Amino acid sequence: MSAVHVLAMITCRPGMRARVLELFKQNIPKVHAEKGCIEYEATVDLAGFGAFQMPLGPESFVVVEKWASAEALRAHAAAAHMRDYAGKTKDFVASRKVYVLTKA
């Protein structure tokens, strides 16, 4: 199987994005240390890009991930540090949509 791509669209409760991103950044070293992690980062709107762009808005961000395999992604989802991160952020997140993708 080819690499697995993930786009996780996160919308935070009003005024909470900075706090969620702070907690996300604290968790990054643990995720990068996981077997099969190729890419894992939070992204936000690029300011001033123009009419071409459909902005996420000030309360949202997208986590861009790439994993070596579906098994690596499953292990990531079950990792203790991810449960801990979810617990720390649950009251600050309004919605989370996760898209798991592979090459067409």
Give an overview of the whole structure:
The model has no long low-confidence stretch (mean pLDDT 96). The protein has a single domain, classed as Alpha-Beta Plaits. It has a four-stranded antiparallel β-sheet. α1 (17-32) packs antiparallel against α3 (80-89). The protein starts with a strand and ends with a strand. 34% of the residues lie in helices and 32% in strands. The longest helix has 16 residues, at 17-32. By secondary structure, the chain is of the alpha+beta class.
Global outline = globular
- CATH-level-2 architecture: 2-Layer Sandwich
Total DSSP helices: 3
**DSSP E strands, number:** 4
Spatial separation of the terminal alpha carbons: 12 Å
Instruction: Determine the fraction of residues in helical runs and give it as a percent range.
Output: 25-40%
List the helices and strands and how they pair.
Blueprint: E1 4-12, H1 17-32, E2 37-43, E3 60-67, H2 70-78, H3 80-89, E4 93-101
Antiparallel strand pairs: 1-3, 1-4, 2-3
Helix pairs in contact: 1-3
Task: Please provide a brief summary of the model.
This protein has 104 residues and is an alpha+beta fold.
Name the descriptors.
104 residues, 4-stranded antiparallel sheet, alpha+beta, Alpha-Beta Plaits, 32% strand
